[in-house]
Amino acid sequence: xxxIYKPKAATRDPRVSPDGQNVAFIEGLMRTRxxxxxxxxxxxxxxxxxxxxxxEIKGVPYALAWAAPDRFNFR
Length: 75
Description:
mainly beta
């Protein structure tokens, strides 16, 4: 086992993409919300930079699920 990413804040709902190439997760949880929520990040399993996919979104995601290898749904 090896560490592939060290979060800077609390995380939630890590989900591997259907093609096994990426992990999407919620990080930076706002614990005052029920359920806790934050921004959605994408991390390539093979290595690379983590990207915040929701930096300008109106609203705060609290759950996510992959809809396709390159698309996901969130609430």
